[in-house]
Design a protein that fits this description.
This protein is of the alpha/beta class and 425 residues long. The chain is 39% helix and 15% strand. A seven-stranded parallel sheet has the order 3-4-2-5-6-1-7, sandwiched between helices. Strands 8-13-12-9-11-10 form a six-stranded parallel sheet, sandwiched between helices. The structure holds adenosine monophosphate.
Amino acid sequence: MLFRSLNIIDPILKAVEEEGYSTPTPIQAEAIPIVLQGTDLLGCAQTGTGKTAAFAIPILQLLSANKFFGKNKKIRSLIVTPTRELAIQIEESFRAYGRHTGLTCTVLFGGVNQKPQTAALQKGVDILVATPGRLLDLMNQGFLTLRDVEIFVLDEADRMLDMGFIHDVKKLLAALPKNRQTLFFSATMPPEIVKLANSILHNPIKVSVTPDSSTVEIIQQSLFFVDKGNKSALLLEILKNPQIKTALVFTRTKHGANIVVKTLLKHDISAEAIHGNKAQSARQRALSNFKDQSTRILVATDIAARGIDVDDLQYVINYEIPNIPETYVHRIGRTGRAGAEGTAYSFCDAEEKEYIRDIEKLIGKKIPVAENPLFPLMIHNPVKTPKQQQGRGNSGHSRPNQVASNRTVIPANKNPKILFSRQRS
Ligand code: AMP
């Protein structure tokens, strides 16, 4: 199928082609016709599936049918998303796909001076992309009204709830006109999300893509069993591979991210951290340095990295294994985007083995174990977590080799992407 066959108007089609896309992704092929016909949509999809264009393209088309100019401009579409990074990327997509439509767009997020944002609003915009806090703040200050919104998008609803935005979302809903089209996206559909969706959608059509398994399938995944204390040494060893031009490294905590950056800098590897403690400008700078490859390694925590969209990102390294299995899929989904190749390495210490078991259950396969002759797992008796003491997970006595014996082990020399250039003395 081609975009041409989706009845997209020429100015948008031209922009999509200029972006280099000719074939819609599954969520685009399904969602675009539904949105164009004016129906509410419940989309079960995560970032990395092309979902932004799945709503941006039809919204631009619907608004193009009836344009307003100058002082008559009003906010006709509102997209609310949980993080600043996502908001910025969504606005960039609207600008890209809408560049020949004459429609205008702006983005609001907190942590920065509000003046440029209010100035942009005062000029008049058709499409507003925002994080909930700053949006409500500017609304309360009287800089904007949502009464003219025709199409409302709630993006990453599950993450929005996770981040505690439910009350903000409810306040926004109260300020929106009842008569509107609503598009609701969430990567997962736990009961509270279904309840929220039911309360705000009107006869929606459900579209679900299964990026999790498809993303996972095209990404080459390797698992390294390694002691916690040797993770930084293993990282440095892996980064000796010159094929790794850039890599996104995940840690569980902000503190952990800072420590990894410090270690890398000490070894002359350019690295920056991106997490919630950093000022918005510092996060943006780190992201753009990473995108243009002037920084080789970006170290991120999960919330900060959600939605990071870097073309050609080939390597994701899980320095720490996430305790929520879906997070693993979100993390590795930063690479292998839209069908591109990707590699994900995961460093697993004794305490994290139970997390790997949960992840493997979710993705429905064993992650191949990489040979790790330099820094093999030596400490097999982790301090028991309360979870383990309740009888869940690792007994603390299994040897890594036993774990590895029923897995596919990739010999180091068979995996060209893993280079071990020296022996441990
Ligand atoms: P998203 O899920 O919206 O974050 O998009 C994921 C990535 O896929 C982004 O880098 C998009 O630029 C890219 N993308 C979106 N639509 C297409 C398409 N039809 N073909 C190829 N790549 C696409």
